[in-house]
Amino acid sequence: MNKKPFWNRMVDAYYKDEQSSAEELDKVCGLLAWLSVHADEDMPSEYRTKHFRNALDDAVDYLEKSGWYEFNKNKCLKESKNDNT
């Protein structure tokens, strides 16, 4: 995995004229986060298989380690700030 923070990779992609790739990566991470949250909420732990638990943990770990959660939080704050002006 690229050790560079998620936000830095997104900015690099944007300035390398790869804006659509950066937008697609953000979209995929958003969908993965949504899926992880809802799978965690909707599937009682006693019914989860080892494989399901491992996959869910891996997905959440990826989003945390990549910096996507922090990136998304900052993006949402910026968007809400722009909406209030």
Walk me through the topology.
Elements: H1 6-15, H2 19-42, H3 50-66, H4 68-83
Helix count equals 4
In terms of DSSP E residues, the strand content is under 5%
Give the N-terminus to C-terminus distance in angstroms.
38 Å
Instruction: Provide the gyration radius in Å.
Output: 15 Å
- The SS-based structural class is mainly alpha
Gross morphology: globular
Number of strands: 0
**Average predicted confidence as pLDDT:** 84
Q: From N to C, what is the helix and strand string?
A: HHHH
Low-confidence stretches: none
Biggest beta sheet summary: none
Approximately how much helix is present in the residues?
over 70%
Number of domains: 1
Put the structure in a nutshell:
The protein contains four helices and no strands. By secondary structure, it is mainly alpha-helical.
Description:
With 85 residues, this protein is mostly helical. The chain has one domain. It has helices spanning 6-15, 19-42, 50-66, 68-83. α2 packs across α3 (50-66). It is globular and about 45 Å long. The model has no long low-confidence stretch (mean pLDDT 84).
